[in-house]
Amino acid sequence: MSSDITLFVNPTAGRGRGAHAAQPAASALRAAGFSVRTVIGEDATDALARARAAVAEGTGALVAVGGDGLVNLALQAVAGTRTPLGIVAVGTGNDFARALGLPVRDPAAAGALVAEALKGERIREVDLGRIGDHWFGTVLASGFDSRVNDRGNRMRLPLGRFKYDLAIALELAAFKPVPFRLTLDDGSAREVAATLVAVGNGTSYGGGMRICADAEMDDGLFDVTVVGDCSRTTLLRVFPRVYKGTHLTHPKVTVYRARRVELAAPDITAYADGEPVGALPQVAECVPAAVRVLV
């Protein structure tokens, strides 16, 4: 394994934590004897091109310093290759790192862990979801949650998480169940009126909302959580339980497991790792051992 390591940095992650986190992470790697270079793109397209170039040139590891958005971008560069992925999670949600039990918002500890993992070759091969040629690590969201994202992304004010809290309230006021068509491995289609459908490779999204709480990242299967036709009152009562994953026992919630999931619904945008991937219908496939993560 090469001793030349690439730090892949989002300078704006977590209101500037990405840029600040790069230094202690780099220091930990250099103290362990690694040579470190930093990649910062002008935009997402440029950043991905630079990350892919580093992988093609044989970097010993690509270390993503940022939140789930940057980790998702890093996955596009390393998925299907032998290049290991390190994570210094300093974003808002950090759900991919949480699912793997990695340090969150502690760049020095995360950098030290990456260095130790490289020296000891502590690598875990984990599954990824794939939609077309786009990879995701945590959850594909559709329905109420994706409409909240749509609304929040259109809003300029308020800033930060308050924007999405307001978007939740506004969407809840206007919410109606969505007619979904869900097709799993056996090819049979299920027509369901649902509040949301979440396809989980990982357990959580939104910074710890354990929507697919029992998902395993190395079993070759998605956990597909379907929250059925809920009234606003039921949704408000069930929603807080998602942080502990206890919503899965509610009678309005059904969980399926599948390698391939096709989702169709009118006027719904799918979000994967918090990033929009396009309007439904979409087909997601679980690809076993698609990425090698330093743990």
UniProtKB/TrEMBL annotation:
InterPro entries: ATP-NAD_kinase_N, Diacylglycerol/lipid_kinase, Diacylglycerol_kinase_cat_dom, Lipid_Phosphate_FormReg, NAD/diacylglycerol_kinase_sf, YegS/DAGK_C
Residue span, DAGKc domain: 1-134
PROSITE patterns the record matches: DAGK
Record organism: Streptomyces xanthii
Any one GO biological process: phospholipid biosynthetic process
Superkingdom of source: Bacteria
GO molecular function, one term: ATP-dependent diacylglycerol kinase activity
Taxonomic lineage: Bacteria, Bacillati, Actinomycetota, Actinomycetes, Kitasatosporales
Keywords: ATP-binding, Kinase, Lipid biosynthesis, Lipid metabolism, Magnesium, Metal-binding, Nucleotide-binding, Phospholipid biosynthesis, Phospholipid metabolism, Transferase
Protein name as catalogued: Diacylglycerol kinase
Gene Ontology CC terms: plasma membrane
Keyword Mitochondrion assigned: no
Cofactor requirement: Mg(2+)
SUPFAM superfamilies from the UniProt entry: NAD kinase/diacylglycerol kinase-like
